[in-house]
Sequence to fold (255 residues):
Amino acid sequence: MAWNVGAGLEGKGVMVTGAAGGIGQAVAQAFATSGARVMAVDLHHEAAESVVETLEGDGHVAAGLNLTDLDAQKELIQRAQDELGGLYVLAHLAAVLQRRDSMDEVTEEDWDFQIDTNLKASFFLMREAANAMRAAGEGGKIVAFSSQGWWTGGFGGSVVYCASKGGIVSMVRGLARTYGGDQITVNAVAPGQVDTPMLMTDLAPETLEAMTKATPLGRVAETSELGGVVVFLASQHASFISGATINVSGGFLMY
Fold:
């Protein structure tokens, strides 16, 4: 058999949240190329459907859901198990960023919006998925998304976003310890600058230039450069990696 970065994923059920986002779509496409069956989840069903239409292979499905609706998460996980023939991987990318020019402009609503989506909803979704994987008894893979900001911190309005992403790193470590005995690995990916609407919207050109200069590779990443990392973490090649946060920042962040 030819070497395959997605070894062990052929025919497996994979849920990708935030699938209509720049990185989310690249991740969904990478899983489909590896032979997995993908459930593309996004806030709007039509956006998720558009992603499914781009995927290689058969058996992919779309779902529209606001993940802060905790009562609906269990139904979503059950639907993935039923329609994909099981749930082996959760790639959880759904997140929000509320930019403010200064710390004093951050409102309580800004805090709740980002923490509820990025941290609270993530905990309950990952727990629900892990419990489903545990009950199935076949192991599983959870890959969450942090940010280089978990280490560097943020400034102005992005402090709240970075706080939520720091929480993801800590949460991943705890979940890895909790579910390791069930052969469920839990890891995070921490991207640096990636060419997505989340990064580019309302970003001052001089700020982007400064970040690019501070990155040793001298550029921002393409979304496809994240897809392979997520597939690797979900594959048999990463079977002994758990509780890790993989830095994908072009050298901007080093640890």
Summary: The beta strands are 13-17, 37-42, 61-64, 89-92, 140-145, 184-191, 245-248. The domain at 13-248 is CATH 3.40.50.720 (Rossmann fold). The first strand starts at residue 13 and ends at 17.
